[in-house]
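Appendix B. Chain record.
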Amino acid sequence: MVEVNRFGAPGRTGMPSLGGDPARQLSVGELAARSGVSVSALHFYEREGLLQSERNDGNQRRYRRDALRRVSFIKVSQRVGVSLADIRAALDSLPGDRAPSPRDWARISERWRAQLDARIAELQHLRTDLDGCMGCGCLSLGTCSLRNPGDELGASGSGPRRWLEPGVGEAGADVASTGVASAGDAHTGDATAG
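Structure tokens predicted for this chain:
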């Protein structure tokens, strides 16, 4: 059984279908319902320069249909931790007078590729090493006494040194650069004979 949703188009109940007219402008309520973003969030995006609307004769907001993709882009970008400033810069690079083409979106993808790859590597590092010593100085894990004895890494700066500077405090790292085993290497048996 096909039901008609509240926008008058056939579709699944609860999932607003906007029909197939790409030129049809959307009200703020329609954009909110279809994108899954609250009206107040859409107003916020507009205030922040992430989204643009036009006003109709009744002074009501109207959005071009391609606003759906922009809102989806904002949501997904925020979900993975991209700042609003970076999102705004990306959206500002898109044409304002027409719906962005696949080529326009590909340019953003290419510009963000290195940044996203670095974020993915950080997340993988977090997933893999969260249960081990970060070099933060807490000395609360058994591995801290081996990888950061007496908080030696604190001398190189603040924060989780092993995460901020890959290779710092790693067994063998000092051997590779100086030929001398560090105290951490001696404890783990990773020292090389010289």
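Further analysis of this model is presented in Appendix C.
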